[in-house]
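thread: overnight batch results

M.L. [08:02]
morning all. the overnight job finished for the chain we discussed friday. pasting input first so we're all looking at the same thing
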Amino acid sequence: MILTYYPLLIFIAPLIAGLVTLFFGGVLGKKVHQIGAAGQALSLGVSLQHFYKVIAHGPERINLDLFSFAASGIFHFGFYFDRLSSLLMVHITLISTLIYIFSNRYMQQDRNYTWFLSLLSLTTFVLLCMISSSNLLMLFFFWQLLSWFLCLLSYHYSHLPTVRGAFRTFVMQRIGDVAFLMGILLAYELYGTFDFVQLFDRAAQIKTSFSIWPAGGIEMSGATAVTFLIFIGAMSKSAQFPLHMWLPDSLYAPTPVHALLHAGIINAGGFLLNRLAPLYGLSSSTLHFVFATGVLTALLGAGMMLTQNDIKKTLGYSTIGQMGYMIMECGLGAFSLAIFHLIAHGLFKGTTFLNCGHVIHATRQEPRHPLKDNSAGAIEFSFLTWLTGFITTLILPLIILLAAHGVLSLPLRNAQGVVIFLFFSWVTSSQAIMTLYRLQAVASRKVAALMLLTLLLVVLTYLLAAQAFTYFLYPDLGAVVSYFQAAALPAWLFDVIVETTALAVILNWVFIYARSHGQSLHMPAWVRGLEDRAYLFFMNRLYLDALAFKLRTLLSRFFIRLDKTWLFPIVTIFIAAAWLFMFSGKDWLDQITGPEAILFLGTALMVPLFPFQGIYLTVLSRLPGYFSLVFGLLMPLAGMMSLARLVPQMPQSFLDGVETLALFGVFYGSIKALAQNRLNLLLAHAGTAFYAFLWWHWAVTGYLTPQAVVYTCGVTLVIGGLLLADLRLRTRYGSLDLNQLGGLIRPMPRFAVLTVLLVMAGMGLPPFGLFSGYVAMLLEPSVKLGWGLAAALMTWLVPVWYLFRLIQRLLLGPHRTDLVYEDFTPAEFVPLLAIVMVLLVLGLLPYGFFESDSLKYSYQSALELLKWDR
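M.L. [08:03]
and the structure it wrote out:
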């Protein structure tokens, strides 16, 4: 029985290594790296063994439900080992092992040496769990954690550009994740399952469509909507335009971070599309959009790469272009080719970044390294080399195209598949040959021979790799044909793309020939001016960074002005009232009794509902000492019990009105929180937004679910824990705002760790209770997709800004020299640790736990006791 679960060593080894390094790194000293290296090596060894087992015996599934009745829930925690996941596990463990060994010496001089090694091991654990997830919801669980670990790895506590880059990284990841979550909700609503096999079968059988704009008659199939939303999540992780800006900003991180990022993390989008390939094969529209996004990203990434003068920026933009290439392959239905590209790029780019790190490390030791070599000079133009490059990049690929059916045995004669493989091999070989042409110090005959060898190597590699990976990953060739047919572009469009690329290759060689002979192409002045503008455009990263900075500045000023003016709440209340009476009517006023109205008003004051949140805000921001903490904890809990009494009494029109107020509460609380500089005020307005989502869910479902109780307890504990931390800070340093007190992560490590964990819980990250409760509430059958749900998702997106900024302002940057810092004592540390542990327990309870008969009976009995007898 134990041998059945031995593949779990693949995940357990880096997890234990990371935890031991984190908690015992100071005791073990420099030997701590040996534990991490052993964990990585063990994971690699088991991955290799299990890879061969999957090849020989087929896919394997391991379920890890914590309770026997968990199977009746919507969430199953388990692993699915097929050829795709097993292959990528070998790839990830191999690269992470090499990066870990490299980091041992490279990062020894860093003050956060053990912290960095621990994060490397934990990130490897999260990556491995993500690619082997047995269902879509579990994949999303680790997808979220991967965003967070990527952000933590990028931090350098005293370097401001790194801090800003890490913030943008997580924010842009979260934007894509909101769309990903919406895609998951829609998939569950349409198909009723998260299991990959069942999801693909039901999606193929159930043909649904809905109107996305009834007035315009625009309809979309269910498969198209699901795949489109999920692809936006893939865009953010794989740095696709316009969600690519986080990658250049993260380049201040240590080189090993980028080796792991470029070799494994950024490829997550390609893996996700391959994992859901049967679903994407049902939507030609989404595949066309994927292709267009990949083409645009590849072109823009290559253009920005060519104009950079920093080696890491050049590599970073090169990765953006290569990820566009990978996504473009998926958009053309060549999913197996994308996996080949993923692995090849990961090995190449990981090695390249480690070599960059070696050069940087050597430069630290010897300032004159690398030595300058001025011996190489310009040589005369070689017609042989030029002609060889011209012929090999143009004529020979056309000859191979005619003989392709005899080389490639895949059944793609009636699709664009063969042309796709040759097209990619043609473009890749052309890039390599043009690079070889610039080797001026090599004899022309040798360069010509290398050009021919490069063409042969690249073309054969693409053909053989395409065939081998296709047979290996997708043995059902009928499915492969269907993917190519679904992704097939109109014949004229595909011809235009190939002909345009061929024309660009020809013009490049003509330009090289003319320039070598001292000639220049005669162009109008406006064309030359356009060339200069294009160069500046790409060199300045499409001016998107300047635009984002300007937009952020304007929004920040706007939010601060809104917070200070008394017109904002009045205008918001007026609009909410007009909306309420316009769409909810007035009949609900006549259908509720006086006691019910009083009970509702009292509940809205305790569990803050816009515009009745005044008492809650006053309690959290103005009560002295522990009074604010005690009442801030007790009011929502008491209000939740009162809310359960309201459920059976209120008419539907009244619930519609509450739903409207709740959505305005989400908007109002989020806007106000963004403008706060004091921690207690930030938490007060954030609580208004969080609890508004609870009211929205109550109004939509018509009852208070156990998952909503978990969510409410999670929100209360997060706000209470952060209020307690703020209270202790004010006791030490007085009433300082967030702009006056910072840099606490080094002088107050206990405080910093607990604050980060509480903020993680508040941002809805797994495995804390807010994530599980929030997702379970959204998956209620009575919650339907619509504009109301989209607005409710703001409670999951906006906290990234104000809670992340809380960490940045409070923990990072230089600390003040005029203050004497004192970390939390055990008496202060234990209560906050207990809150974190309760949040963790709430998040780890399996969803099936909420479906058990005993809990349902207990919960229904409690509601019966709280009912209001009319």
